[in-house]
Structure formats: C-alpha cells, structure tokens
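Q: Here's a chain of 319 amino acids. Please give me its 3D structure as tokens.
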Amino acid sequence: MLKRSLLVGITSAALLASGHAIAVDDDLPRYERVSGISGNLGSMGSDTLNNLMTLWAEEFNDFYPNVSIEIEGAGSGTAPVALSEGTANFGPMSRSMRSSEIQDFEDSHGYEPTKVRVAIDTIAVFVNRDNPIEGLTLDQVDGIFSETQRCGGYNKTRWGDVGLDGAWSNRDFTLYSRNAVSGTYGFFREHALCDGDFKDAINEQPGSASVVQGVSESLNGIGYSGIGYKTSGVRAIPLGEEEGEYYEPTGENAVSGNYPLARFLYVYVNKHPNDGLPPLEREFLRLVLSKEGQEVVNRDGFIPLPAAAAQREKERLGL
C-alpha cells in the first residue's frame, strides 16, 4: 500500500485541496518549448496508464507536431520486455519492475532501467450503481475475491455475507478482475489478497474499461481498477482496515494514508548513466513533470504530483 513511508517528501500540505479533489500544485513550472524536436516515440505497457499516455502524447504534439507517438497498453508486464529489446522508448507501469525484469534489462544494456514517478492512483473496488453496500473491509474484499483468504477473513459467496439483506442477501457475487499481465492485477493480489489466489470463477478482463463495463452491466457485479476508469454505471465503494471505518478512494485519503489501496504510477525509460536521455524522451518527460503534464493527470482522474516530488524526479533524470 502507498503508506506514508512511501510518500517520501510528499506532504499532505503540498497536496490537499478543499473537498475531495487535489489541485495541481501552482509551484509546478510551465513547460517551455525547445527547438529541434522531431521523430518517433513508442510506448508499451500499462493499460491503466494507456489513456494518460495518450493525453500526454496529444499535449506533446501541441508543442511538437512533427513527432509521431505510438502507444500500446496491453499491460504492465509488457513494458520491461519492450524496453529491454528496444522496441519502445517508454514503459508505463502501474507497479514497480520485479527484480527479474530489472536483471533482464541490465543483461541487455549493462545498467538498470530508470523508474520515473508520474502520478498517484487509487485502486477502486467498483460495484453496480444500484448496489447499496456502504463499504467493505480488506478482509471482506479478500473473502470475496480470493480462494485462499490469507488476509485472515473467511470465504464469502453472496452479498448477504457482507451485510446486505432483503432481496440482496442471496445474490451471488459476479467477480471481475484484470488479467495476470496487468500491474493492477499484481498490486491488488498483493495488497488486497495478501498474495493469495483469485477464485476460479473470476471473469478476467484484458483492460480496466472492460472490468468497469462488466460491473456496470451486472447487478451483482464487483471488480477493481484504477479510479480513473470510473463511469456513471458503477460506484467506487469506501474501504478500510476496520469494519465501519471506511474511506473513499479520493486523493486526500490516498495522501493521508487512510485509503488502503493507493499507489504510484510509473514510466520506465532507458537512461544511459553517462549519456543521459535522448532529446525526445527528455522533452516528453519534462512535459509530463510540468504543470501542463500534471493538469493532464488531474483531468484524467488521477492524483497529480506536487512540485517538490516532480522536481526530485527531474533531478534524478538530469532534466
């Protein structure tokens, strides 16, 4: 989970705004166009970040219309291979690379890939908009989705097992999940299922939008994805560690550490330790970490980085 200890240097004061939203930090610098930027860029990786990468590409093209950008979002697990083999410039991921993936890249290039924090996300558990459930504990979430119940709860098969009564009490869950190549799948399995196994009856989907659509079309549906995929057909239900102490998946609750399923989103790049980033990659990431880039984050439903955090990423990249 994105606990306070992981939000190194990201203070609540820098991020919190009125209500549930988190404003884009006014101290973020505006992006300034440079000359001589043209060519091709490719991105392969996270489905969660696919729309965000597309929006960033559109913003980048406003500054540099002679740059062609191809984006594919088949899942975070595709990013390390694409970067290692040089078939993509960017590897967006909704999880950190595994040690084996880092080693494969290092075997190919002689140094490790560079991880760039670009936004903060909350993993939401969605139910149909007509479902009256008020909230769930993580133990209950584990009991709903997992075969093994490693978080300490017990198996749950119907909505009555988590407190709904009347016509809802005997309704079975219809479960929706991302597939195993997804970083969201891995994060949810680790943090909500305590590294347990998903139930066999789960409906694995190739993308987050498909998860949300499935839940919106099924009265008994429940599934998970990044909050940015929320639609009017679903509700993102509050979660908590203790029964009755539930927190909505808002930016404020992510930053405070109260919402239990929050994470950083990353873009990995091939940055040579001596030569630095090529001009195209450098300028794209400068845009991402600028005020314009973080306004895109906000517009897409994710949580923008504060200026201090963005500055640290730029310093690590030599921007």
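Q: Can you summarize the key feature?
A: The longest strand covers residues 114-128.
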